[in-house]
Design a protein that fits this description.
The protein has 6 helices and 5 strands. The protein is α/β, with parallel strands linked by helices and 179 residues long.
């Protein structure tokens, strides 16, 4: 591959020049974890300017991050707001490990605690051990996405077709939608 030849779409010099002289027009806003193993642009094979991405540990929505998502949905007019969690999330594992008390040094962990509470109940109701992190973490990951989707729908006044969520599996490299 020579200089300026891109593997991913929408990253060539012509696209960069176009983006530099025009307003951005992403089609989706994405809230995802800041984990270096799951950048949304690469996972969804999108080019520059296609996604408006806000990343934070544990893909939790609060404060300035919600303001950023509001910019994407209202000012930039993205048609979809997608919450992306992932397997083996360190933030979810930290929340599971600090349940029920949380962690005053890591405020995002406290935002994940309701998902952990739900996950522990689900694991127990399914005959599992709610004290086993290996059983609770995957369920808490899904619950964290679902609760964040619900929160953002309510906060932004969006409907179910405008806000979706999914979990990226680091092993299979697939994103599964969650309901």
């Amino acid at each position: 591959m020579g200089a300026n030849e891109q593997v991913h779409p929408g990253e060539d010099p012509a696209r960069r020049a176009c983006l530099a002289s025009n307003a951005q027009t992403p089609f989706a806003s994405v809230l995802s974890c800041s984990d270096s193993r799951c950048p949304p642009e690469l996972l969804f094979d999108q080019g520059l300017g296609d996604l408006f991405v806000a990343r934070v540990a544990g893909n939790t929505a609060s404060g300035r991050l919600i303001d950023s998502l509001l910019l994407g949905t209202e000012d930039l007019g993205t048609r979809l707001l997608f919450v992306l969690g992932h397997s083996s999330c360190g933030a979810v594992a930290a929340a599971v490990g600090s349940w029920p008390f949380g962690n005053p040094r890591l405020p995002f962990v406290n935002l994940i605690l309701p998902a952990v509470t739900n996950a522990r109940k689900i694991v127990k109701n399914n005959g599992g051990n709610p004290n086993d992190p290996a059983q609770v973490i995957p369920v808490a990951t899904v619950q964290n996405v679902l609760l964040t989707v619900k929160e953002l729908k309510t906060y932004f006044g969006l409907n179910s077709s405008q806000v979706k969520g999914g979990v990226y599996d680091l092993g299979t490299q697939l994103v599964s939608l969650v309901n």
